[in-house]
Amino acid sequence: MNYNDKNVLITGISGFVGSYLAKKMVDLGANVHGLVRRRADGVIPKNIVDRRINGELNLIEGELTDITSLANAMDQAEPDYIFHLAAQSFVERSFNNSMETQSINCMGTANLLETVNIKDLNPKIVFAGSSEEYGLVISSTKQHEKAIQDYGNIFPEPTEIPEVPIKETNPLRPMSPYAVSKVYGDYLMRNYYHSYGLDTVVSRAFNHEGAGRGSMFVTSVITNQIMKLKLGETDRIVIGNLNALRDWSHVKDIVHGYLLLAEKGNSGDVYNQGSMRTNSVLSYILLGLEEAGWNINHIQTLNGEKKVNDPTEIDQTPIYGIKFPKTRVDQLILEDELEYTIEDKGIQVETDKGTVTIQFNPDRFRPAEVPLLLSDTSKIQKLGAKIEYSLNDILKDQLNYFLKKENRNL
After folding, report:
1. What is the DSSP string of 127-183?
2. Which of 14, 120, 304, 344 lies at a C-alpha separation of 20 to 30 Å from 387?
3. Where are the domains of the chain?
4. Which residues in the chain show pLDDT less than 50?
């Protein structure tokens, strides 16, 4: 990948992924420009400081909702590549403030594309779509029946079950205002390619984590609490839905994918990015506890039910035609043999250091939940994408990040 002396504009450069991408681009010799919101205090964004790239970037003040500021950013950056990462990306917040999400994610993306078009620029534009666009993916007949019972209607109806692993051709059934906004941006990118000839490519990245992930996201909520537990700053872990299964990648693997799409991605096309493995929120907690020094014997609900011995024992049995490492509890959840509900109130984790309590917080259960995400990344693999980091690598990085007291208190 030769980005030496290329002009790169990153929207959302001060965000979690944007800062990692900026660091990589700086290391590759690119001239990196980043769109940032105006700050009255003039403080350099924390992620930029954490990546140690302050002074190696040109930070341009601007807003996606202000097309004039975007025009000014284009004039300054003269981009060969644009990575459009900026968004209101917190799913829970999108339920509480849908209009904010649509304004930033939908109209902001429209403003960006319209600016490029009006100014007759021809950069390669990589759009950060999301696996949340797939939404309600049907993984079994039992889950399909439950979805019909819960929602009354599913559109489009599945033509085959299971619909996993998820290909780029899977139906889109977004389950949150955030997901809907990403579908909008996804289609708009391709529309501007077909209608105006803009050089766009869409990345639908599945969950990506690492040190510095926003404090409101579930993996940071988990690892922050684990470190507080280890240091005696709390006596329990409080969480929402434990059953959700997610395809978690390390942010550095996803950044590598963005670079590949900028260099080799077919214009007007869509590519999944992910790890081709799926693990439950519960496993993220249990494996995190083990990385932090606890040895787990068994788990059970607070009333002594749903007991699982050796819950973190690794299972390599193929499922959905894919072989990947998953825990015993993952396997049970995937086989519809284990499910935790609000009525269970919580879980006791029996360890060599005593009992760890996981308490359920009903407020953290979403109005509409995506039960399972598992990517098929065959398409981007043909461009050279590889998964270099394991789930435990992600956990180590996040736990180490929260060793700093200032990070635990964000």
Report:
1. EE--GGGTBS---SHHHHHHHHHHHS--SSPPSSS---SBPTTSPPB--SHHHHHHH
2. 14
3. 7-212+247-278+371-388
4. none
8: CB partners within 8 A, 6+ apart: 25, 30, 31, 32, 33, 77, 79, 80, 81, 82, 83
Both tokens of 231, joined, read 């240091």
H/E element, 226:
helix 218-230
Q: How far is it, in rounded angstroms, from Cα 64 to Cα 80?
A: 19
Peptide bond into 156 cis (omega under 30): yes
Classify domain 7-212+247-278+371-388 at the CATH class level: alpha beta
pTM of the model: 0.95
Q: Residue 322's pLDDT is what?
A: 93
pLDDT in tens, 302-347: 999 999 999 999 999 999 999 999 999 999 999 989 999 989 999 9
DSSP string, 364-379: GS-SS---B--B--HH
3-state secondary structure of 125: strand
What is the distance between the alpha carbons of residues 140 and 371, in angstroms, rounded to a whole number? Answer: 11
Distances (CA, A) of 228 to 111, 201, 212, 404: 42, 41, 16, 11
Residue type, 380: I
Which residue has 């007759």 as its token pair?
A: 120
Burial (CB count <10 Å: 0-12, 13-18, 19+), residue 159? exposed
Residue 47 is predicted with a pLDDT of 92
pLDDT (0 to 100) of residue 91: 86
